[in-house]
Amino acid sequence: MGKMKFFCDTYAMVEIIKGNRSYQPYLEQELHTNILNLYELFYILLKGYDEITAKEYFYEFASFILPIEDHYLFAAASFKLKFQKKNISYADALGYAMAENKNMRFLTGDKEFKDMDNVEFVK
């Protein structure tokens, strides 16, 4: 059986970096993200650590980046509008839309996504 595909949001990448054991099994799977989530990750690490550490992890996760196509943006905007009462970031809306479009599960621990379809919710 092949590897499962997951789209990592920023929350998931931060937990992987922190060494959260709940995310360890996913390291054996096929992981993806987009440049916006990587941008958020860089900012969080720059704020919490330093530029060297932030760049180190940025480049480590850069190989996971999927290109952003127009139709993902359209789907993300519709998703964000549908769930406008939730506090879903633009980056996460885009990531969720990309995951759905690419037949991947959206890997996160963000409370806004708990109990949603196509989400692998991990704390």
Care to describe what's here?
With 123 residues, this protein is of the alpha/beta class. It has a single domain, classed as 3-Layer(aba) Sandwich (Rossmann fold), CATH 3.40.50. Helices cover 48% and strands 11% of the residues. It contains 5 helices and 4 strands; from the N terminus they run βαβααααββ. It has helices at residues 10-18, 35-48, 51-61, 70-82, 90-101; strands at 5-8, 30-32, 105-108, 119-121. It has a 4-stranded parallel β-sheet. Helix 1 crosses helix 2, helix 2 packs antiparallel against helix 3 (51-61) and helix 4 crosses helix 5. The longest helix is centred in the middle third of the chain and has 14 residues, at 35-48. The relative contact order is 0.21. The model has no long low-confidence stretch (mean pLDDT 97).
Topology, element by element:
Blueprint (H helix, E strand, L loop, with lengths): L4 E4 L1 H9 L11 E3 L2 H14 L2 H11 L8 H13 L7 H12 L3 E4 L10 E3 L2
Helix pairs in contact: 1-2, 2-3, 4-5
What is the N-to-C succession of helices and strands?
EHEHHHHEE
Question: Main β-sheet: number of strands, strand sense, barrel status?
Answer: 4 strands, parallel
Instruction: Tell me which oligomeric state these chains represent.
Output: single chain
Estimate the helix proportion, in percent: 40-55%
Going by CATH, the homologous superfamily would be 5'-nuclease
The CATH architecture would be 3-Layer(aba) Sandwich
Distance between the termini: 26 Å
Low-pLDDT runs: none
Provide the domain count.
1
SS content category: alpha/beta
The CATH class label is Alpha Beta
Shape: globular
Beta-strand residue percentage = 5-15%
Give me the number of helical elements.
Answer: 5
User: What is the CATH topology descriptor?
Assistant: Rossmann fold
Overall average pLDDT: 97
How many individual β-strands? Answer: 4
